[in-house]
Amino acid sequence: MALWGVLLGALSCLYVATELVGSRKLHGFTQKLAAQSDLAQRLEATTMVFERISIAIFSGTRAEPSDLEVLAIAAEDIATRLEGKLKADTQAIAVRAMAMREAADIPTARAELRVIADKRSALRRGLGEEIGHLSASLSQHVESAHQNKVLLSLLGLFSLVFIVVLEHRWLVRPIADMARALADNRKDERGLDRLARRSDEIGMLGRALLVRQRGLQAEQEASQARVNALSGEVARQEAAQAHNAAFQDRIAAIAQALEQHGARLSQAAGEFAQLSSVVDERAGTATQSTQRVSGHVDHVAGAITEVSSLLATAASEAQRTSEVADAAKALVDEATADTVVLCEAVGKIVQVIDIIGTVASQTNLLALNATIEAARAGEAGRGFAVVAGEVKQLAHRTAEATGDVRKGLDQINVAAQRITMRVGALVTSVEKVDRAALSIAELTARQDVGSRSISETTTRTAGDVRLVAEQVEQLAGTLASWRQTAGSVTAASADLDRQAAELRQTVDGFIRRREQASA
């Protein structure tokens, strides 16, 4: 039974260790997902600043130093939590932002801004790939944990059934067979001989009972043989003698046989009492082993309860991750709405530019008409011609500036559309993170339910082990009753010796009186 307890304890420890390792890995994946989501949220928090910088640069003005400083600080903060190429790209964003702050002209600032835009795009893609990789690893880990749980559950169920079957076959049934054999006083030795071939305590008990039963059978056969011999001798004496001598020899032989049989009964009762003491000691040892197994099972149940507590903690962490992902999704939705507002503003500005272009075209046409009229007026219209020429040049520069502004606005519109597309991709990634976190919480809850079921099964197993201990104690009580019976047999044997002595004295007195009467 101690070996069975060790086997069950080892299996339970393996299950607990597997659950602990799985919980730690799950916690690690959750922390990594939360860190990546936080980095993506921090990156999107700088989108408005980047848009203000872009609008300022493409409008031909210098960006605000505070915006450039915020962008550089955010990039450095993100870089401290990244590694490899992503860290280099983030550091490059910080360096380019500071270079834009020190740039002497607008074209240089525009070049730096394009580099920063490319690095931000690469950083977004890298963070998306990291989140996707973590999601794939998390799914694989969850699947592996589920498979391990199923295998351990099947192994635990098989071990439990195996232990119960072996316990019934190797302990309970042999003890019951020996008890029935002793209670029925059967002469069939095949069952005891099969038990005596075992090498454990049951085998020792079976061998002792077998030896004792064979000794009793031999004594019974010898007694029967002696009784038969005495019967033949008495018959011969009755045939040879028809007087008191035959009666004397017969009574003396019977008294002597009774004395010997009483002595043998006393000796057999003493040996039976010693054997009962040995059996009682073995039963006590079996009871102690059963109690130790029960203690091991209770300890395993406590360990499984602790695993359930750890699973509840992991579920709360997964729920917290889902809340963080929801917050990131809300922020991304707000960034998307802001980008749409930016596109609408750019559209309105384009409409205003169209109006300005129309006015410039009409102004140019009026200047041309004024130039023609001044030419017709001759010397009197020369001053008016100069003014018309200036107006025409102003209209031409206005048209050129309007074209430049339109190009800048087209670029802003294209950039805003790209930002909208990337923000949409980020929303998809955040939704995947949210679904993964919810899946983690659900799987953790299922693991908690499985752990509670195993704890209940272990508790029921402890109850069965205690029931076996009670049955062993009942067997010890039965052995005590056997010892009392052996004492009664010893007392009866002593009484038989006393009665045989009295019979011998009575017969001797009778013979002496007959001899005296004959003399």
Polypeptide structure, described:
The chain has 519 residues and is mainly α. The protein has two domains: 2-169 and 293-475, Methyl-accepting chemotaxis protein (Helix Hairpins, Orthogonal Bundle); 170-292 and 476-518, no CATH class. It is 94% helix and 0% strand. The chain is built from nine helices and no strands. Helix 1 runs parallel beside helix 8 (244-377), helix 2 packs across helix 3 (65-79) and helix 2 packs antiparallel against helix 5 (106-184). The protein is rod-shaped. The mean pLDDT is 70.
**Bulk shape:** rod-shaped
Which quaternary structure do these chains form? single chain
DSSP strand content: under 5%
Averaged pLDDT: 70
Radius of gyration: 53 Å
* Major sheet summary line: none
- Determine the fraction of residues in helical runs and give it as a percent range: over 70%
Break the fold down into its secondary structure elements and pairings.
Elements: H1 2-45, H2 47-58, H3 65-79, H4 84-102, H5 106-184, H6 190-196, H7 201-240, H8 244-377, H9 382-518
